[in-house]
Design a protein that fits this description.
The chain has 13 helices and 13 strands. It has 409 residues and is α+β, with helices and mostly antiparallel strands.
Length: 409
Amino acid sequence: MRVSSIARAAAPPVPGISTYTTTRMRFAATPPTDEVVRPRLQAVVDQLVKKYGYPGAYIYLDGPPQAGYDGTPLVVKAGCDTVGTATPIADDPLILSASITKSLVAGVALQLAEEGKLNLWDTLEQRLPAKDMGRFEAQRAEPLISLLRHASGLPDWLNTAFLTHATQLGWTDEAARQLTQPLDHDAILDFTKQADHGPRTRGSFNYCNTNYELLARVIEEVEGQPLGQVLQKRLFTPLGLTHTHFETWPDTTTWANGYSTYFSSTLPQHPNMHWNIPVLWGRASGGVVSTPQEIAALYRGLYGQAKNKASKTGRRSLLLHAPESHERLVNSVIPTESNNGTQSSLGVFRRKGKPGFFHNGSPMGYKTLAYYNEETDMAVVAFVNSDQNRHELLGSQLAGLFREVGFSV
């Protein structure tokens, strides 16, 4: 199915679980030219199309010069933007970042902690409005940091009740109408109330979109502004981003087409059905629209470690100034349910004992990945323009393909 062809024709994001391998890249000792790196990355996107069957694949990479790479930002692509044609994906198209949004919401929470406006060990009862807190009696004493790490024990509004509802509707015009209605905070919590409240171990990892909806409400209470305005003020404007938006988009920027298999295993589905919606649903679960280059700028802005003599580590980022923020990101981790050493941190994931912060997104019609290595200052943003093979995470696929072409992961 063609999910989006212009800014007004986009599917709602369906954020998915993010537990995949980091991609720390080291290059052989060769002359510093991007022509060493480019063929390797081209082989990766070619394989995403040929091996995994995606219509199109895209990788954006930038960072300082190092062995095998001259520091020039690279865009490599394979396949097509429009099924049945040879039209390539644009060089820097708008995409639904989906759950990568959570990294940005967590970044704002860390900024507020730096400024003394928010204590991440405050409880939900201390910070949530009484109306919201009344829905989650069992979590009254849960600290805010458990929301960031996905360790609160809350039920997931999206991966249970909402998707059950969506599946029952099927792929019809009425389903399109219902599924693309923007959900506000109360509607999201209503789905949470209907969600599976089965046993969960508090303090253990359980990926849950509800965590970030509640965190967003806390941020809105502290700042006295809607989440979109807070993100604009604290992240998008300081970094000079012009194509990054929250729950809206411009009509002038090229979208990457996306194709969905949520209701059928064949591609494309209903090529004439466009999702004409003015607002994305999902809020903090996945409401940010951006481009690969601007997502890379956001990750570098949050996790980049520029030299700073006032810091114990000699480092600081553009948006997070206190060394304590970086220490929290590195140390406030819990293991996920995977067996590859993946750890859940504050809005991002890490690999045990390795540098790098990452998150994936699983919107309808795409798979996305954002990664930043704070040691090499290398940023990678990748996406494929179909959600087929939904249970295989893009990061895991990329990690395997990087190994095939000679990157050390």
